[in-house]
User: Which sequence fits this backbone?
């Protein structure tokens, strides 16, 4: 029998296997995440956290590792309609006090109403107290915090959200725990809350104490966490993953339920 006759069955088998083999292989690169662009704004008009540079660098690192572009600035003049239109989300990273003038505020309002995204970290809620629109976007304003940092239990209420799906049901961590002027639960989707029985919140204890949430507001998207005071937070893989998920939710790159949680009966 000729070598050609011997090879024909083998060639036929190879052709069949090629036809039924699945598309892709174990060595194929994973599908890239959708690219987007965020503006990180860290201007402070009042208290300035030592962790500001650490937070900004962490977000830059997250962008480099996860395929999104990060521009960071403390120059408020970038808040123009034309410039903001380039970004899928604006991250207020530990901002404080009054940081925008009236023209810049109008540009940000237009950006959010046109479907833009906002992410706020820690003292982003200690920012622009006399601007009601911003108060709605952040979800609640800072009121006080007990002196120092405390170990506390965080109750993860939504373990499907991209920013909290990796967390355990109860997350123990050390941070500076903000009390807020109002309980935002009626208007935001609470992702996690802090258990006040696990530390002393001081005279402004809230009872129900949301600490991380998202919402659809004024036509745009918003995600906020009261955590992130310490520089150590930004080296914590769990916190960094939470921050990444929050930015992706704010940018519209990840789908999430951000409907209001409603009051606790």
Assistant:
């Amino acid at each position: 029998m000729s070598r050609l006759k011997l090879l024909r069955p083998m060639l036929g088998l190879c052709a069949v296997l090629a036809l039924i083999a699945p598309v892709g292989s174990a060595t194929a690169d994973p599908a890239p995440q959708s690219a987007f662009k965020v503006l990180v704004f860290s201007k402070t008009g009042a208290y300035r956290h030592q962790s500001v540079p650490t937070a900004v660098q962490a977000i830059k690192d997250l962008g480099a590792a996860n395929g999104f572009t990060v521009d960071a600035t403390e120059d408020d003049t970038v808040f123009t309609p034309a410039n903001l239109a380039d970004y899928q989300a604006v991250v207020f990273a530990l901002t404080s006090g009054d940081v925008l003038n009236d023209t810049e505020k109008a540009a940000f309002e237009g950006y959010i109403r046109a479907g833009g995204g906002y992410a706020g970290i820690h003292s982003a809620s200690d920012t622009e107290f006399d601007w009601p629109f911003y108060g709605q976007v952040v979800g609640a304003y800072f009121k006080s915090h007990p002196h120092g940092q405390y170990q506390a239990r965080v109750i993860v209420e939504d373990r499907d959200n991209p920013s909290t799906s990796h967390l355990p049901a109860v997350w123990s961590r050390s941070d500076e725990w903000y009390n807020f002027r109002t309980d935002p639960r009626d208007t935001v989707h609470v992702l996690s809350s802090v258990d006040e029985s696990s530390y002393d919140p001081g005279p402004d204890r809230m009872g129900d104490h949301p600490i991380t949430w998202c919402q659809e507001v004024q036509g745009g998207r918003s995600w906020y966490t009261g955590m992130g005071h310490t520089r150590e937070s930004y080296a914590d893989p769990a916190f960094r993953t939470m921050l990444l998920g929050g930015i992706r939710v704010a940018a519209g790159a990840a789908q999430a339920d951000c409907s209001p949680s409603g009051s606790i009966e």
